[in-house]
Amino acid sequence: APAPPPARHLFSDPAEVEALRGSLLAWYDKCRRDLPWRTLAATEPDADRRAYAVWVSEIMLQQTQVATVIDYYNRWMQKWPTLQALAQASLEEVNELWSGLGYYSRGKRLQEAARKVVSELAGQMPRTAEDLQKLLPGVGRYTAGAIASISYGQATGVVDGNVIRVLCRLRCIGADSSSPAVIDRLWDMANALVDRSRPGDFNQALMELGAMVCVPKAPLCSECPVKQHCRAQRRVSLGPTVTVMLVFAGVGSCPLCPPATEPWDSSLGVTNFPRKAAKKQPRVARSATCVLERRGCRGALEYLIVQRPSSGLLAGLWEFPSLPLAQGLQEEKQREVLADHLRAWTGQPVAARSLQFIGEVIHIFSHIHQTYVVYSLPLDGDVTLDPALSPSRWVTEEEFHASAVSTAMKKV
């Protein structure tokens, strides 16, 4: 069995816990940001509608900054103010509204879960974190905890990136914060720390502290409402004494101390915490993309877009005809393979030399460094699209931007 963490890492003093809760909630009441999902959650008397408002915000906020989410959230709630309204929408509509927000599978899973609530759960949201996670696709442990605590008052903690950072600094946790063992300990701490009378506000306060004060770089320690409880701050004030160095080096078998090979860096201060494993480098990929254009019946230029498969990266979104390229492929060969690919769409031979090279577009996905090699091909006359192929259609520039296309294709 793994060794238990020493008491110095835990919230074991009831008086300290109560003081920390009170200080954090008082700060939150005074300093919290005015965000639309908080307003809805605070003013909506129906718990299930409150839960829907929180749920949408939490899914959108995964891997996406608050400033980006606000406009998308407002448009979403205006279009689908209830879970029942979302369940009746089409995936195409969901993808169109989500366009540009990234991580498109989030919107798809959100709609799938809404349909499940309506069709299988009689329109009633699960009311505990355990049931939310078990019954709703796309709802993980964190999202379930957020919905249950904010909407239904369940005294359950939450652990996201902000909470990880705050807890690691408060309790000098220097082991790899992305490891399952450390994450489990952090969940235990969050569940022990959450305020029983105001669990939703407390969880939001903890996340707000990480977003506004206890930030990754240059944290505002002097403004922190719980600095008197922060062991990382205490360590900074003590200086690199022998005792501190021995404790920080993880002498013994403490599972939450950093390894002895990673000593305290006095120049980093509290940002010595948290520690993470080295990030895996994104894989490199290249695709050839062709913007096929024709003059429409009303004289406006139209562009061919085709729909991606229903699973995988950018599932169900629309794009210009594209195909992946092998690494190291010469430019002449790129034209040839793209011309072969385009013959299927146009129903007629395409000469490689007729493809006009436009340039390259780089787009960084979370795990892929993608380069689009962009070509253009004007077409004369009408083109009959093969219905046996993926769905496709001709669109004007205005229609293109209104379609469910990715940010990468907008760059193209």
UniProtKB/TrEMBL annotation:
Main location, first listed in the record: mitochondrion
Source organism (scientific name): Anhinga rufa (African darter)
BP terms from Gene Ontology: base-excision repair; mismatch repair
EC number: 3.2.2.31
InterPro entries found in the cross-reference section: DNA_glycosylase (IPR011257), Endonuclease-III-like_CS2 (IPR004036), HhH-GPD_domain (IPR003265), HhH_base_excis_C (IPR023170), HhH_motif (IPR000445), MIG/MutY (IPR044298), MutY_C (IPR029119), NUDIX_hydrolase-like_dom_sf (IPR015797)
Cofactor note: Binds 1 [4Fe-4S] cluster.
Pfam families recorded: HHH, HhH-GPD, NUDIX_4
Ranges of residues in domain HhH-GPD: 60-212
GO molecular function: 4 iron, 4 sulfur cluster binding; 8-oxo-7,8-dihydroguanine DNA N-glycosylase activity; adenine/guanine mispair binding; metal ion binding; oxidized purine DNA binding; purine-specific mismatch base pair DNA N-glycosylase activity
Needed cofactors: [4Fe-4S] cluster
Compartments reported by the entry: Mitochondrion; Nucleus
Sequence similarity: Belongs to the Nth/MutY family.
Protein name: Adenine DNA glycosylase
GO CC terms of this entry: mitochondrion; nucleus
Highest rank taxon of the organism: Eukaryota
Coiled coil: none
Assigned keywords, A-Z: 4Fe-4S, DNA damage, DNA repair, Glycosidase, Hydrolase, Iron, Iron-sulfur, Metal-binding, Mitochondrion, Nucleus
Reactions that this protein is recorded to catalyse: Hydrolyzes free adenine bases from 7,8-dihydro-8-oxoguanine:adenine mismatched double-stranded DNA, leaving an apurinic site
Function: Involved in oxidative DNA damage repair. Initiates repair of A*oxoG to C*G by removing the inappropriately paired adenine base from the DNA backbone. Possesses both adenine and 2-OH-A DNA glycosylase activities. Adenine glycosylase active on G-A mispairs.
Family annotation (PANTHER family): ADENINE DNA GLYCOSYLASE
SMART domains named in the record: ENDO3c (SM00478)
